[in-house]
Amino acid sequence: MSTELFSEERIIEGCREGKRQYQEILYRRYAQKMYGICLSYAASRPLAQDMLQEAFIKIFNNIESFKGQGSFEGWIRRIVVNTSIDMLRQKNTSEHFISHEEPFENKAFTENEALPKIQLKELLEFISRLPEGARMIFNLFAVEGYTHKEIAQELNISEGTSKSQFNRARHLLMGWLEEN
Q1: How far apart are CA 169 and CA 42, in angstroms?
Q2: Measured CA angle at 68 (ends 63, 73), to 5 deg
Q3: C-alpha radius of gyration, the chain, whole number
Q4: Gap between the Cα atoms of 19 and 13, Å rounded
Q5: In the structure, what pLDDT confidence band is assigned to residue 158 with cuts at 50, 70 and 90?
Q6: Cβ pair 13, 21 in contact under 8 A
Q7: Which of 9, 20, 30, 143 is most buried, most CB within 10 Å of its CB?
Q8: What is the rounded CA–CA span in Å between residue 127 and residue 99?
Q9: In this predicted model, what pLDDT tens digit does every residue of 25-62 receive, in sequence order?
């Protein structure tokens, strides 16, 4: 069944009514894109699949809270990101943050440091190789657009730790990209 035959409003309404057909349509429409987000946080495909499943359970259980203000996809994305963070937090990822705060280098990329043209799949593979703490902060800062202050509050860490973890992730990624 093509998910394009149904309007977003009708899908939302069907899900609010608890109709499985509409839940399946919603899942098919957004699952692949949201799985990509989960993959960027998870260290493995099984964990990403668990994150996605847990996020969609929350989406279906809380769809009444979507008030139609802003993007529905953005609302879904926020749930997916928060679920991914929560699941990593449950795994006690705080031990994966470096314990000391390295000086944060807030320098602009030079032309020599510019990212080479690589495929998104390759970039996601490099990101998945990052240590959990650095990967989570890299995604929150560089992909989701959180500030270091917001990340620090969300993860209950210091702003300096957020900055140093981002710096660590950036340096690791640049090193791996230069190797290829």
Answers
A1: 15
A2: 70
A3: 18
A4: 9
A5: very high
A6: no
A7: 30
A8: 21
A9: 999 999 999 999 998 888 888 999 999 999 999 999 99
CA gap 157, 146 in Å, rounded: 14
Rounded Cα distance between 180 and 175, Å, is 9
Which tokens go with 42? 């998870």
DSSP assignment letter at 112: G
pLDDT tens, residue by residue, 62-96? 999 999 888 999 999 999 999 999 998 887 644 45
- Structural domains present in the chain: 3-91 (1.10.1740.10), 94-179 (1.10.10.10)
Question: What is the rounded average pLDDT of the residues 111-140?
Answer: 76
| DSSP, residue by residue, 21-57 | HHHHHHHHHHHHHHHHHHHHH-SSHHHHHHHHHHHHH
